[in-house]
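User: Can you recover a sequence for this backbone? Please restate the input before giving your answer.

Assistant: Of course. Working from this structure:
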């Protein structure tokens, strides 16, 4: 593979570089003119190497582990919500049937909602509960995904 400095920079990489430059400006390492010039250059940059060059003479910022943890949880929460949304479809269908049949008696579709609620609570506890181990949670999720892919491949 060629030098990664020649790879195209993503919007996320440009935003990250801009945030770093803002931090250095706030710490007093850059004058206002340098800050403006570098920030403009960040958004004009096309490659990872150009972004790296703009930060070459600046010290590395300490990694904020709480921000990294929040980003991982946000990403995993989004995946969890997406999966849960699909499992709520039977609940909504049953609720519609219950409503169109006169909505008499107890609200029995609530039992169908357990299909979505139980995994949601279990996974939510794994993400936010005491002693949450995101590495282990991600390993289990990827293992389950791989098992599902293998099952689909065997069915074909």
């Amino acid at each position: 593979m060629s030098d990664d400095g020649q790879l195209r920079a993503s919007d996320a990489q440009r935003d990250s570089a801009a945030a770093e430059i803002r931090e250095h400006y706030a710490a007093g390492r850059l004058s206002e003119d340098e800050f403006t010039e570098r920030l403009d250059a960040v958004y004009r940059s096309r490659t990872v190497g150009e972004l790296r060059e703009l930060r070459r003479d600046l010290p590395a910022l300490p990694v904020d582990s709480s921000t990294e943890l929040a980003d991982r949880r946000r990403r995993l929460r989004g995946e969890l919500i997406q999966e849960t949304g699909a499992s709520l479809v039977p609940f909504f269908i049953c609720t519609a049937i219950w409503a169109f049949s006169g909505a008499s008696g107890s609200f029995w579709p609530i039992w169908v909602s357990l299909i979505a609620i139980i995994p949601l609570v279990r996974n939510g506890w794994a993400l936010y509960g005491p002693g949450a181990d995101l590495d282990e949670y991600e390993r289990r999720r990827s293992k389950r995904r791989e098992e599902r892919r293998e099952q689909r491949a065997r069915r074909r």
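That completes the design. Residues 65-155 form one domain.
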